[in-house]
Each structure stands twice: as structure tokens, then as C-alpha cells.
Design brief:
With 146 residues, this protein is an alpha+beta fold. It is 14% helix and 33% strand. The strands form four sheets. The protein has a five-stranded antiparallel sheet, with no helix packed on it. Strands 2, 3, 6 and 13 form a four-stranded mixed sheet that branches.
Length: 146
């Protein structure tokens, strides 16, 4: 009887290790550097928030953190996550670009949105971040309603 209990205990430990290890698969999330430029109607867009929202790739259940950046006076941006990881998750992303600024505690808008919803709330923007990253993740947008 004691041998039978030990046998089951050993198999439970092995089964637990297999489950924890993911059957040998490693789904470590990879990040790559991303920087780019935002142009609207032929002019650099200053002080806009650029957010990359990672999308699920294939069978992976891990997606990773969104990345964000703020454009400078020349419309250039560089991404980082909330946990201060530089870049964005390798893979496919939906991209949101917004000029609205609001107080996070009250929701009060201090700078109104100047871009059409198709670039932020109902974004049509997508991009693929390769393992080597992107040094020219540029967006040329039109403010005309289409």
C-alpha cells in the first residue's frame, strides 16, 4: 500500500511539472525597439499619444503589455511599456493615435481630440513588429473624414 501511495505521489509531481512547464513549450514574450513618425495632412503631429495594442498570434495565449509613446514637436515617437520595458511585443498590433488629453482621476478633457475616430477609438491602424524592431514605424494620416 505504501508503495502504491508513493507511485501516485511521484506521478502527481511529474504531471504538475509538465503542466507548469507547458509541455516543453516556451511562450516567453519578446519585445523589440520601436520608433517612428506621425504625419497628419503632410505635417508632423506633436503631442499625440501612440499606443500599440498587441494582438494574439496563432495559438499563443500570451499577448503582452501594450506599449505607448508621445510624439515630440517633429512628430517622432519611441515606445515603452508601463513597466518601463523599451519597445513593443514582437507580433501584430492594433495602433491608436490620439491628441486628446484628460485628467485620469476626473476624466475631464483638457485638450480635445483633433483626429477622426478611425485612428483611436475605432482604429483601423495595424502594424507588425518584427524581432529586429522598427526604426521607421511611420504613419501618414489624413484628418479628412472618409
Amino acid at each position: 500500500m505504501l508503495c502504491h501511495v508513493r507511485f501516485h505521489s511521484v506521478w502527481l509531481v511529474i504531471l504538475g511539472l509538465i503542466v507548469i512547464s507547458g509541455c516543453g513549450k516556451t511562450d516567453k514574450i519578446q519585445y523589440a525597439p520601436v520608433r517612428g513618425l506621425v504625419i497628419v495632412d503632410g505635417k508632423p503631429l506633436a503631442n499625440a499619444t501612440v499606443i500599440y495594442i498587441p494582438q494574439r498570434n496563432g495559438e499563443s495565449t500570451q499577448v503582452g503589455q501594450p506599449s505607448f509613446g508621445r510624439t515630440d514637436e517633429q512628430g517622432r515617437y519611441q515606445l515603452m511599456t508601463a513597466s518601463q520595458t523599451s519597445g513593443a511585443v514582437v507580433g501584430r498590433h492594433r495602433v491608436s493615435i490620439s491628441t486628446e488629453v484628460s485628467d485620469p482621476s476626473t476624466g475631464e478633457v483638457s485638450v480635445p481630440e483633433t483626429l477622426p475616430e478611425r485612428f483611436h477609438k475605432k482604429t483601423i491602424l495595424e502594424i507588425e513588429v518584427p524581432k529586429g524592431g522598427l526604426s521607421e514605424a511611420n504613419f501618414e494620416l489624413s484628418s479628412a473624414n472618409k
